C-alpha cells in the first residue's frame, strides 16, 4: 500500500496536542539488529502503545514498552520485515497514530567470477558472474567490464536468490593475464554508498595447445665438437619438451626432456634427425632438424666374399665400401712390395671386383681407400689362395676279392676339391674309358658281372687344379659256384677197392683249392689243386679197401678255397656220401625154439637169420634122402617158420640158405621128434592057430621114437623075450605053447601092449619043445634090426601112401 496515501488518511486524526514520534521510513540491512522506537514524550502519564502492521504478516519482533516509548526490536532483519508498521499510542484519553515504512535491503557479498581460469584460445568460452542474497532484486545491475570498458550490462527483473550472469567470450592470445571484472550495483535509496556497488576482478587464463614450435641450432657439426639444439614453442599450460633421435633403422631414441638438447663430443652416430615433441594437456606439436656430422671417411671396409682364404679355382668378389660418412669416391688397389696398383675405382661409396677363378698368385694384399672433403681412409685385406686339400678315397680299398659273376662297383670319391677331374687306369697305364659313371665328386667303375679277365689293379686318379692324387685297388676274382659232387665208381664190395670221386666244378684259382676227404671227423686224404688259367673242374679220388664196418659210414669231401678275403661262408663247401657196402650173405644162422628135441604135438619155430647186403633171399628147407624140400622162402633178413604141432616125421635136418647177387650161405640144424609107442600092430604068420611043430613068426609094428624095446611074454609064464626089431620067431611049437601072449612095446616115453592068443594043435609025433628052447638071441638081434627097419620103413611107406610088409617077411626067416 502506498504509504503516502495512508499518511493522508491518518492526518486529520493526528491533529492532537501530543506528538507521537516515529520515523516515517527506515531502511534496514538484512541480518542487522535494528530497533524502531515509537515515543510520546509529551504524555505525562504512562502511554499505552499498540503496534500493528498494514500488511497482515507476522513480524517476529519483540516490543519493549516503557512509560513514554515503545521499542520494536528486529533481532535479525529479514526481507519480510518490509511492511508499514503502525504505532498507536494512548495517553490518557488521547490516542495517536503514527506509521513507518520499513524497507529492507540485502547485498552481502562481492560477485564471484568463474570460468575465467581455463579459457580456451579462440573458442567461445562462457564466464559466469554469480551474485547471491540480493534484495531487492529489481534494483540490481550487473556489468561485465574488460578494463574500464563495460562489455555487458544486466538489469531489470530477476527472480530467485542467487544469480549467474554469463558472459560469452572468445579469447585471443593477448587476453591471457588480463583482468575481467564483474560489477554489481544495488540501487536502493538510502543505501550507504560503500554498500551500493561491489565488484570482483580476476585475471583471465587462456589455455592453448603448443604452437609456433621452432627448433634451432647448428645443423652441421665437426666430429668431436658439441651441439646444442633448442626447441621453442608457445602454449598454455607450459608445454613439456621431448627430444628424440630418429635413427636410420627406424628406431627412435629419447634424448632428453628439456627445451635444450646438448651433446658433447659428437660422434658419427649422432648424425641424423632430431625431433622435438612439444605437448601439454591440450595437444602436441613437433618439429625436427637434421644434423650432419662432418668427418673424414670412416668404416671403410674391404671384404672378400665368400671369404678371404680361398682354394685355387674358387670365385671371389672383393668389395670395398665406406659407410660411416658421405664419401666422394673409393679406390680398390693391389699392393705388392709397398707399390699400389689400382684395380678399380668408383664415384660414390663402393666398388668391387670379381675374380672368377683365383690362382695361387692372386694371394696378397688388397687395399681400399675412401675419400671425401674431410680426408681419406684406407683398409687392407689379405687374400690367401691355397691349393686344394684334395683327398681321394677308393672303395673298396686296397684289395677286393669277389666271386665271378657278382657285381662290383669301384667308387672313387674326391673331397676337398670343388671340381675334381677323374681318370681311371690299369697298371699298364692304359686308360679305362668304359663302364664309368662320373658325377660331381664321385666316379664309379661298374662291373655288372665280374669275369676272370676283370682281375687286375685299378687306379683312380683325381686332378684338382695343380694337385693330382690317386688310389688303387686290386680286384681278385674267384669262382666256387657250387658244392662239390661226390660219386662212387661202382658197388663197394667188402674186401674190394672202393673209388670215391669228389668234383668241385668250375673253380678258380684252382691252385688255391684243396680237397680234403674226411671219414667222419678224421681227415683221411688231402689234395691241392694246381695252377690253371681259367675255371676248371677240380677232382680228387679217394680209394680204399672196403670193410664191412664201413657200412653207413659218412665220407665227406670238403673243398676249401684258401684265398685271403673270401668270405668264410663261401670258402668252404662240402658234400658227403654215406657208404653202402655190398657183401654176400654171411653168418646165416638157424635157430629152433624152444628145443631141437621135441615131443610129438609140441609147437616149434624155426628161424633163419642172415646178414647180407643187399638183403638176399632166404630159403628154409628140409633135407631128405639127399634131396631138399623147400618149406619157406622170404626176402628178408629173418625167416620164421612155425610148426604148431610136430609129428614124428617132422624130424630131420633143416637148412637155411640165404643168397644175394654176390653169393650164398647156409646153416642147418637137426630136429628130433619123439613119441611113445603107438599104433602098435601085431601080425602073426602064418596064423595064430598052428599044428604042433610048426613055426610062428610074430611081427610087431609100432610107431615111436626113440626106437622101442619090444618084449614078448606068455602071460602065464614069467619069461620075457626081448626084441629090438619087434620080430619074434617061434619054432617047433607044442600044445604047451598055447596061451595068451602079450607084446609090450616100450621106450622111455611110454609103452603100448597087445595081447593075442596062440593055439597049437597036438601032433603026437615029435616031443614038444619048451618055450625057452626056441629063443635064439642072434635072431633076436636080427629081428631088432628088422624092427628098426620097420619103423623107418613105416615112415617111408607113409610118404609113399601104402604099406609094404614084404620086408617083415624077408627078415623073418
Ligand atoms: C658395405 O659393406 C658391408 C659389409 O659387406 C655391408 O654390410 C654394407 O651394407 C655395405 N654398405 C654399402 C653402402 O654398400
Ligand atoms: C697380411 O699379410 C701380411 C704378410 O703375410 C702381414 O704382415 C699382415 O699383417 C697381414 N695383414 C692382415 C690384416 O692380416
Ligand atoms: C690294361 O688295359 C689294356 C687295355 O684294356 C690291356 O691291354 C692291358 O693288358 C691291361 N694291363 C693290365 C696290367 O691289366
Ligand atoms: C665241368 O663239369 C660240368 C658238369 O659235369 C661240365 O658241364 C663242364 O663242361 C666241366 N668243365 C670243364 C672245364 O671240364
Ligand atoms: C651148404 O653149404 C655147403 C658149403 O657151401 C655146400 O657144400 C652144401 O651143398 C650146402 N648145402 C645145401 C643144402 O645147400
Ligand atoms: C595110428 O592110430 C590112429 C588111431 O589110433 C590112426 O588115426 C593113425 O592113422 C594111425 N597111424 C598109423 C601110422 O597107422
Ligand atoms: C622050423 O624052423 C626050424 C629052424 O629054422 C626048421 O629047421 C624047421 O624045418 C621048421 N619047420 C617047419 C615045419 O618049417
Ligand atoms: C611093459 O613094460 C614096461 C617096462 O618094462 C612095464 O613098465 C610095463 O608094466 C609093462 N606092461 C605090462 C602090461 O606088463
Ligand atoms: C583066447 O582063448 C580063450 C579060450 O578060447 C578065450 O577065452 C580068450 O578070449 C581069447 N583071447 C583073445 C585075446 O583072443
Ligand atoms: C613036451 C612037454 O614038455 N610036455 C609037457 C606038457 O605039459 C605036461 C603037464 O604040465 C607035462 O607033463 C608034459 O611033459
TrEMBL record:
It holds the Pfam family I-set. The keyword Membrane applies. Residues 12-103, 108-201, 210-290, 296-384, 390-476, 481-580, 585-672, 677-759 form the Ig-like domain. The keyword Ribonucleoprotein does not apply. GO terms for biological process: cell-cell adhesion. SMART domains: IG, IGc2. The chain crosses the membrane at residues 774-795. Coiled coil: none annotated. One of its GO terms (cellular component) is plasma membrane. This is Vascular cell adhesion protein 1-like. It comes from Sinocyclocheilus rhinocerous. The gene is LOC107715100.
